[in-house]
C-alpha cells in the first residue's frame, strides 16, 4: 500500500481481462443469486453480489462505456426480471475481496488501526438512500467472535444522475481478526449496497460491530422489485487518512490485477477465443513464468487455441485436442505436460488466484 495510494484495485473499472476489454463494453454476466449468496465479476476484481431467498429475479453485471466525465468505463448492474418481494436476508451490492497486500498497512486488529476514506461515482435509475460497508473475511462463519463489520449511510442520491459519493474518516478497527501478513484474504469492501434486507442492518452507523452488516434501516430497497432498474459505479478511491480524495489511475493497475488473474491471451482477446497469438508451445513438457507473482496458488485452466475448448491442448501433429497429463502451478509459474504425437502441442491458459473465484 505504500506504493499505491488507492487500496482498491481497478477502481476505474477499465480492466476486464476475461471480456478482453480495456474500456468500453464488456460481456453481460448473469448473477447466480443462490440462497447462500452468489456473485460474478463484471470487470477485474469487482463483482456484483446477490442473495435470493424466496423471491426469484434475474440480475446482470456488465462493464459499460457509460461513465462520468474523465472516466472511460463503469460497472453496471441491471435487474433483467424483477422479484415479487424481498426477504430479510436478501441483498444486492458491488463488492471487492481485499487482500492483505492491499490493506495490511491499515493495521486493523491492533491498537494502531488507521482510519481511511472512500470516494466514487454512482448513478442509479431510481433515487434513494443507500449504504455501504467494510467487513472481515468471515472465514470461520458469521458467528465467529473475531469477525467485525462497519456500515455507513449516504445522503439521498437523485435518479439518473452521476453523483460523487464520499465516506470520510472511516475509523480503523482495533479489534477482531484481520489477516495483515503475507498475501492472504483480508476482508471485503462493499462501496454501496443497492438492496439489503433487515438481517444486514447495522445497530448504528460508522461503529464496528461483532456481526455482519451492510447498511442502515433507512436503506432504499426497491431495485430488485423494479424491472429494468440499474445502477453504475466507477472511480472507486479508497485511501488511508481522514480525507476523501478523488480517483487517481494507478500506473501499474494491470499488474496489480494480474496478481489475482492472468491469461496468456492478448488483452484484447477473451479466454476461449480461437487464436494462436500468445499461445504456449511444447513437445512433451513445458514450464512458464507468470508476468506477476500471484497472491496465492492459482487455479489453472488450459484452452485449445484451435477450437477454444477448455481443459485441453492442441496436438498439431495429430490435428486434435488432447487432455494434459500433468499441470502443476505455484505463485510464480506453472508446469505442463502432454502425451502428444511427434509434433508440438499448443495451448492457452488462465491463472485464477482470486480470493473469491
Please specify the SSE layout and strand pairing:
Layout: E1 29-30, E2 38-43, E3 46-51, E4 58-64, E5 74-81, E6 91-99, H1 100-103, E7 116-124, E8 131-136, E9 149-153, E10 163-170, E11 185-196, E12 230-240, H2 253-258, E13 261-263, E14 280-282, E15 285-289, E16 299-303, E17 313-315, E18 320-322, E19 326-329, E20 333-337, E21 345-352
Antiparallel strand pairs: 1-4, 2-3, 3-6, 4-5, 5-12, 6-11, 7-10, 7-12, 8-9, 8-11, 13-21, 14-21, 15-20, 16-21, 17-18, 17-21, 19-20
Tell me what you see in this structure.
- By secondary structure, the protein is mostly beta strands.
- It has two domains: 29-253, Sandwich (Jelly Rolls), CATH 2.60.120.260; 261-352, Immunoglobulin-like (Sandwich).
- The protein contains two helices and 21 strands.
- The strands form four sheets. It has a six-stranded antiparallel sheet, with no helix packed on it. It has a six-stranded antiparallel sheet with strand order 2-3-6-11-8-9. Strands 13, 14, 16, 17, 18 and 21 form a six-stranded antiparallel sheet that branches.
- The protein is globular.
- The chain starts with 28 loop residues before the first strand and ends in a 5-residue tail after the last strand.
- The mean pLDDT is 92.
Amino acid at each position: 500500500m505504500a506504493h499505491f495510494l488507492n487500496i482498491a484495485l481497478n477502481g476505474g473499472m477499465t480492466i476486464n481481462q476475461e471480456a478482453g476489454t480495456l474500456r468500453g463494453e464488456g460481456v453481460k454476466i448473469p448473477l447466480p443469486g443462490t440462497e447462500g449468496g452468489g456473485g460474478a465479476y463484471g470487470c477485474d476484481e469487482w463483482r456484483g453480489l446477490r442473495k435470493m431467498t424466496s423471491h426469484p429475479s434475474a440480475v446482470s453485471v456488465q462493464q459499460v462505456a457509460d461513465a462520468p466525465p474523465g472516466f472511460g468505463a463503469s460497472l453496471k448492474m441491471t435487474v433483467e426480471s424483477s422479484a415479487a418481494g424481498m426477504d430479510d436476508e436478501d441483498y444486492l451490492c458491488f463488492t471487492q475481496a481485499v487482500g492483505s497486500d492491499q490493506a495490511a498497512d491499515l493495521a486493523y486488529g491492533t491498537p494502531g488501526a488507521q482510519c481511511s476514506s472512500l470516494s466514487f461515482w454512482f448513478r442509479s435509475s431510481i433515487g434513494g438512500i443507500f449504504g455501504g460497508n467494510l467487513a472481515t473475511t468471515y472465514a470461520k462463519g458469521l458467528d465467529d467472535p473475531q469477525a467485525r463489520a462497519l456500515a455507513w449511510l449516504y445522503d439521498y442520491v437523485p435518479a439518473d444522475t452521476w453523483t460523487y459519493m464520499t465516506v470520510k474518516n472511516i475509523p480503523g478497527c482495533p479489534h477482531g481478526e484481520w489477516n495483515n501478513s503475507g498475501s492472504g484474504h483480508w476482508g471485503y469492501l462493499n462501496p454501496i449496497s443497492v438492496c439489503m434486507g433487515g438481517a444486514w442492518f447495522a445497530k448504528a452507523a460508522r461503529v464496528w460491530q461483532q456481526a455482519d452488516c451492510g447498511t442502515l434501516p433507512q436503506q432504499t430497497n426497491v431495485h430488485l422489485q423494479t424491472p429494468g432498474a440499474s445502477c453504475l459505479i466507477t472511480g472507486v478511491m479508497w485511501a488511508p487518512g481522514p480525507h476523501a480524495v478523488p480517483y487517481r489511475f494507478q500506473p501499474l493497475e494491470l499488474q496489480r490485477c494480474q496478481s489475482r488473474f492472468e491469461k496468456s491471451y492478448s488483452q484484447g482477446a477473451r479466454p476461449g477465443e480461437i487464436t494462436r497469438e500468445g499461445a504456449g508451445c511444447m513437445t512433451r513438457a513445458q514450464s512458464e513464468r507468470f508476468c506477476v507473482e500471484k497472491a496465492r496458488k492459482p487455479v489453472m485452466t488450459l484452452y485449445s487455441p484451435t477450437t477454444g475448448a477448455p481443459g485441453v491442448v492442441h496436438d498439431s501433429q495429430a490435428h486434435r485436442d488432447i487432455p494434459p497429463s500433468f499441470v502443476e502451478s505455484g505463485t510464480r509459474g506453472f508446469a505442463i505436460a502432454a502425451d502428444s504425437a511427434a509434433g508440438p502441442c499448443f495451448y492457452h491458459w488462465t491463472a485464477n488466484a482470486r480470493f473469491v473465484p
